[in-house]
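Sequence in, structure out.
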Amino acid sequence: MTPKPSLPSPRPGIDDITPYKPGKATVEGVEHPVKLSANENILGCSPHAREAFVSAASDLNLYPDGRGNRLRAAIAERYRLEPERLILGCGTDEIFALLNQTYLRAGDNIVQGEYGFGAYAIGARANEGEVRLAPETNYRIDVDKLLECVDERTRLVFIANPANPTGTFIPLSEVERLHAGLPRDVLLVLDGAYAEFNSDPTFSDGVDLARGAENVVVTHTFSKLHGLAALRVGWAYAPAAVAAAIDRIRLPFNTSIAGQAAAVAALADEDFQARSLALVERWRPWLTQQLGGLGLEVVPPAANFVLIGFPRSGGRIAGEAEAFLARRGLILRGVAGYGLPDHLRLTIGLEAHNRAVVEALAEFLVRTSAPAEA
């Protein structure tokens, strides 16, 4: 009997990957809920970026500039960088995937914090790489624990600074100590998706470190501060050899005409950026104080969101709070998938949104703590 041919099968590890799960955007039975689950810019985007996007509609029949030269030039001028060392991506998610694809062989590993952004691990496992999770101290990257995970098969170390979903950060001195402790053939990837929101004087996104290093990559996104999440535009500043290697496998038209045009306009609109930062600077401490006053744990935030801890119950209380808020049209992000079942993540919103969340949580906690009727 002729053996039955086997079916196509994915490479090892693919079937074991848990797909990325974004924050919820809708609530059944609630019309027009307030989405505070994805760390989007609640102010929208620059009006100039919107105009650039609309103008690009006349070019829908054209392929974009595959190198994104105009956007490269704008980023290079803004941050005083060499254009040839820039990598553009369909969001920074694609850049993380490309780094894993370029530098991982089967059996190699990446190292990240235990609460690290899920895209790092997905990209590694897709390339038959091992993911090593370093324990975090007080929800914060622990440099010594990261270095303990590094061995001869480590190829990349990923940290988001400030981190997602915790919102914590480590100062530049700790980033430099981490870099100094890594072998030269290990790439340190500094994810700066939320870097603009951190005004602490000890903080740096790492660009200055990367200028003279052969193994440091810094990434930024237009999704958060600039409010262009729908257009998927991210960038990285990398050593010339790293940028050249990634350029060999990058999809040829991975950022669109509309995305490039809107990003250039957004980068130039410093007024919109200032208003976005001012909103976060105003309401982040207020939320921290108000939520703490309700008896909830608030992880010290340095981004445009707040991580809220509920009494430990294996996720029951946090899940009930998420559902309670959702019924009132307020969508927060459950982060059990990140190993934080007793926490919810709250994007900082407009004044009315922030006050509504605090009032709803106060009501929820009163109901939760009320004794059951006999």
